[in-house]
Amino acid sequence: MNTYRLQFLKIVLISFFTVSFFSCKTQQTYTSYLFSYFTGNSGNEEAIRYALSSDGYNYYALNGNQPVIDSKDISSTGGVRDPHILRGADGKTFYMVVTDMVSAKGWSSNRAMVLMKSSDLINWTSTVVNIPQSYPEEFGDVVRVWAPQTIYDDKTNQYMIYWSMLGEKGPDIIYYAYANKDFTGLATTPKQLFYSPTNSACIDGDIIYKDGKYNLFFKNESHGGGIRKAVSDKLTEGYVQQDGFYDQTDAAVEGSGIFKLIDSDEYILMYDMYTSGTYQFTKSSDLEHFTVVDDNISMNFHPRHGTVIRITDHEKEVLLNQWGTLDKSAFVSFNGEGIRQNNVDINDADGTIYIPVFLGTDISNLDLKIETIPWVKVLTTGPQDFSSGAVHYTIETAGKQKTYKVSVHEDNNPVLNGFYADPEIIYSEKTKKYYIYPTSDGFNGWSGTYFKTFSSPDLVNWTDEGVILDLKKDVSWADRHAWAPCAIEKKVNGEYKYFYYFTAAQKIGVAVSDNPEGPFVDSGQPIIGEKPEGINRGQEIDPDIFTDPVSGKSYLYWGNGYMGVVELNDDMVSVKPNSFKRLNPGGTFREGTEVFYRNGTYYFLWSEDDTRSPNYRVRYATADSPLGPLNIPDNNLILEKRPEKGIYGTGHNSVIQTPETDIWHIVYHRFNRPKGITMGDAAGFNREVCIDKLEFNEDGSIKPVEPTISGITSMD
């Protein structure tokens, strides 16, 4: 009996220590978050990238936001999208699945996904799974295989992969199959996991288990699109679609991903607002009610459709040793007084940092207040004297150091702090100040909806006067695409009035104010609301207002793809009937007409090429009348890029004369310097306003303008 009891106790103790041992091996202490994502639709943007966060809200790219895996090595198309990363049930193996796709070949061009496996988050094995080739009888007509994800099924001890597919005749449906033991292929034939006939399509599924229920978040393509949810108590069947939408925006969304915060009962539901160029984060404790937490979110990159997992300190250190690079991506901001944040130029090739500051900044005692990504430390701190030249700054991470030569410069281009474009400038006799009326820029796809103005006594120092017209509040006939305004000061019955012409929803409106800084009151309808007779191309945008000093008549010019003009009535808010005329500036005209008068000559300036192009530039013609005909000089290019200065996309200008002088300046926009040239099409809506001198030859021809970084420091 004693022998039996001793043997029993031995078995219990062995079992206890065995269970405890394996529990300790698989139990992890998570301290950080790993975000796997891709960034866009071209080149190496369709590749897997990593970012780290210590709190689940603020993310910083690893490897300088460059791919951590070469898409050509793992895919059949040369590109991958929608990475989903999962920690395995053993706690130490990682699984990733991605869409095998290059979007340039079309949205119904891919047939495969890639299955990947790793033990260290760095080295991955991979296999391409082509659905029509693998299952020609069941799925031979499949034209796209999108956004695969993986979840562990603890009832079958298998990894279940689920994704959306589109056949030739049906909508996108979410299917599933189990992976084989090695995670190199599918062990079962795909079956339908979820589809609701109330949705035109179901894509981008993401499953999370909570309180005995599997919650399947997905994007539906009907009723305007959005994130919906279906719930089941079984992983592979029985999903019931819930009422309503779970995204908290009216913008288009896709690629939802949900993860649990460390040491918290709260979850983050995030999704890709792909037409807005951003991500939205929402928080919930019950997976039913979500609140937006965007104010707490920051990223030093622009992700597309990705997923987040929790990682340990050791795993973070492994990633940092591999991809914690010391380069420009290590710097988050330079917060010292007077620094032009948007224009700091970090050159890794020659190890320099160019810091532009506003005029008047004390550079002899300047603290740059450098903020870096969390794992990088700045060893040079406190105020420094930059008045005698550059100062060396050293940064450090993971035992590695790098030193930069940092110089500070008082620059005055751009003249407006922030992203603005299409600048119109006037001089007000009433206030004896200059005013710039720009497009409010920095919005994805030129989606701004309000206008501001800026004032200056001297063309050098500018004050933000705030919003003067908000389409959503002040305009009844349009609420989108607030672009390219112009303005003019007129005396009406002895009182100064200000007439403001603006683009909204590709139409031109007019608003009126008693003051140049507004507020402006819209007339209630567009002044140019449709294409003129005989015009069948282009857009009704980019107004320019000009009063002829000879005749006293006022003319409104506009056009994209054609240059049109009408005479205005004396009220300045209506068009003189039958006065439309199409002018001929030649084949280089794109948009952005600007008209001014000097010494008996009418000058017509316009922009050539697309505002998203580095080659956007300004040409001109002359005339003897505000209605033409236009005389186009052989060498009429007056403003263009300067690659050696990092200046690109110079265009859409206005011109101002200093009163009682023959001193002239040109006001124009350019790509943000220095980042714009690296931003692709997004450079065309991240622009900034500059001023440089405009000079004339003795014969009245315009000298080519030298765009500068330093800008002007006086009106001379």
TrEMBL record:
GO terms under biological process: xylan catabolic process
Keyword terms, alphabetized: Carbohydrate metabolism, Glycosidase, Hydrolase, Polysaccharide degradation, Xylan degradation
GO molecular function: hydrolase activity, hydrolyzing O-glycosyl compounds
PROSITE patterns, per database record: PROKAR_LIPOPROTEIN
SUPFAM superfamilies: Arabinanase/levansucrase/invertase
TM helices/strands, residue ranges: none
CDD domains: GH43_Bt3655-like, GH43_BT3675-like
Gene3D superfamilies recorded: 2.60.40.2340, Glycosyl hydrolase domain, family 43
Magnesium in keyword set: no
UniProt keyword DNA repair, yes or no: no
Domain of life: Bacteria
InterPro entries per record: Glyco_hydro_43, Glyco_hydro_beta-prop_sf, Glycosyl_Hydrlase_43_Enz
Recorded family membership: Belongs to the glycosyl hydrolase 43 family.
Full protein name: Family 43 glycosylhydrolase
Organism from which the protein derives: Aestuariibaculum suncheonense
